[in-house]
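Colleagues,

Please find the record for the two-part complex below.
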Amino acid sequence: MPLKYRVLTIVALCLVSVWFLFPRNVTQRQRGSDGLLHDVTFRRIPLQQGLDLKGGTYLALEVNDSIQKIPQDKKGEAIDRALKVVRTRIEGFGVSEAVVQKQGSDRIVVQIPGIQDPERARKLVEDQAFLEFKITDKTQALERALPKLDQVIKARGLVAKSDTAGKGAATVAKGLQGLLTKTDTSKKADTTKKGAKAAAAKDTTTPDSLKIQPGGAMSSLIEQGQMPGEFYVEVDKVPTLENYLADTAVKAALPPGKDLIAGTDSTPLQGKFYRSYYLVDSKPIITGEYLTKARPNQSPTDGTIVEFELSNEGGRRFRTETGKHIGDYMAIILDRRVMGRPPVIQGAIGTRGQITMGGKGLDAAQDLALVLNAGALPVPLRVAETHVIGPSLGQDSIDRGRTAAIIAVVLVVVIMIAYYRFSGVLAVGGLTLYVLYTLAALAGFDAVLTLPGIAGFVLSIGIAVDANVLIFERIREELDRGKTVRTAIDEGFRHAMPAIVDSNVSTILTAAVLYQYGTGPVKGFAVTLIAGIFASLVTSIFVVRTFYLLWLNRSRGAQTLSI
Amino acid sequence: MKMLRILHGTNYDFIKFWRTAVAATIGFILLGLAFMGYHKARTGEAVNYSIEFTGGTVVQVKFAQAAHPDAVRSAVDRAGFPGSEIAAFGSPADFLIKVPPKAGATSAPDAPRIGAEIVASFAQTIPGNVARVERAESVGPRVGAELKTKAFTAILISFLVTLIYLAIRFEWRFGVAAVVATAHDILTTMAFLAMLHLEVSLTVVAAILTVIGYSLNDTIIIFDRVRENLKKQRKESLYDVLNRSINETLPRSVMTHATVLAATLSLLLFAGEVIRPFSWIMAFGVFTGTFSSIYVAGPILLWIEHRWPRATGAENKGAARAAAEERRREQRTPVATR
């Protein structure tokens, strides 16, 4: 290649590199929330700092198959759908620069820079927001199933040894019964009276026969609540009950077509806290898929609430279903938890409804409205990994990384120039372009700058001069054999080639394998490695050679070479 | 022509010491194993895996002033995380607290909450010395197991790819020798990790892989010389060719190791605590890589040669082809570029 074109190529490469390294506006076609394609222009800043450098929250999510079993081949598709929901939710969180990505085939990664409240972020993405409306049981199905449940639990050997609840608890329960009804009438008289009457009218059994008999493992755990289908469990004993309910045999012994679901509220009674449980129909009368709008609000009677609206079709179904269940209680279930106390259905309900938040603040209501609007996650997710990095730590890493990089560069420059003199200066010139090209290549790959990435880059500066060293040593050997300067340079480059190619190709192959099979940081490291090798090949073989040719042209007939 | 030269035109018999070298490296690896046994007896884990592999939580805290490790430990115990590992992190005011994963949990622990609880406990037990959470990370139990398999697969496949490439470019015996040398580097690096009780994190795995690449590079440079010298002098024994090639590449080795070591040492000394394990391994890697290129790859090549002697002279098709290629190249007139 004529020298002129060599120089032009190098200049062109430099210009392209600089262009890659400058922030610029990029226009992309993206599907907006309305489902249409839009041209979105955003500022693309090359070599963005990773979270370990700028601080922030990183969450990796995976399908939670302990709640819902998903076949392996369906997981990818489920994750794709979940990705959209998570993205909408994070966008609603109001942090710019947040990144939501799929990682591998079964993971979602959420990166939120500089967030102050990582716990809230976690809840926002982990809540499935699966909304269901179910009718609570009024037939004492659980009471009737209790003897069988007690037997099953005993047979399965699930009874905890420390669990000494027996007669004592039962007597407390009887005392509670009176207390409960008193508080109930005073508090919620207006809403429940009508329903309670209706329920009482339908009940054919006498109240006495409803009493839970003490003795069995399950019977001793639960107390009757103040409305049909409601039960109280001492908060300390909730884990024991959950343990029973997790057993498949116990699940099978529950009344057919019914589920026992925990509520969100706990009621203090006689210095103890009780969690509510509700026996509800397994089949929901309607689910959150018809929800179109949700917004937080304050209500004078119910405190913080989330109001929602259903679509027309959902409203129709809701009206028909609620029409059939007038006088029944309707549990509003979010992610397998009954929200508040189930209200009684007083007449057919149309498109509007509300969820009471209990004692929770407006923040919680806002987040719930946000997740309801974004839609339910198609599969339950759980956090597989979380990293929260403080901003000062990141700055510290950047400062130290910079110091190390500068010192490394200075040392390498000194070694090269001290040993190879003029040729060393040419190599340092090549090294400068190496840094420029590598950074540009990384920017082209959209690589994110992380601390291991910086370390790898610093290291690569030390390794990059290897090709130069190989070539220079070869040129020295040729000069030793008495060849002229020009021939020695030509031969030196030529003889060094096989070694340079073989060693670098094998490293590229290793890096490619790392890229294929590695995850996260390892993958980023592989990208740095590959970019570095290519840049090093270009600079040592092509750029430094051009420098030599330029020098030979200027000093025609040079008899000596400083190397 | 004046040149600054080191180790130029040397003629050391490197290979002569291969028995001593092999004994030394086996001793080193065994010592590493002994350290692993010691760690296993002390902590129950032979290898100090990071939470990325084991699951669990790590919280880095920074106090306003230096704090006593015992006070930190008792505060962490009080916060409800007994059995946590506590270590000073770079300075007496910085601590790294490693909370083991809860048995039976399926999702990652809530790292920010754990961090907040620990700092709240510090405020009670170490009053007047304000602490803040610099970093809180946690990993669920499933991720780790997956990572281990993935890292292992990656290393195995890269071995295979290297083997195939070297078999094509050189000969199968060179490929085998290079891969054995690389495997040796992994073993010595693991031994080194055990001796310093460094934590094996993803970054450390990346460092080990870099060491592998670096060592392989070094081996190939020497093998390339061997290949070249075999073509030139066919009377010389492989033993002599090997020695001569090592000597001829010695200046290059010294220079490259010097620049890489310069970069590595500046990382080790200035880049801070987070990246220190990475820097340690790279620094060690420069030495083990150089060592294995000479004393593992060389003797293995000789052993293979001894076990399966190669055909000599014109019968050696590979060498003949390479020689023909070389002749063709020589005949080509150099194109003058200007």
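The two ends of chain B are 25 Å apart (CA to CA).

Comments are welcome before we finalize the supplementary table.
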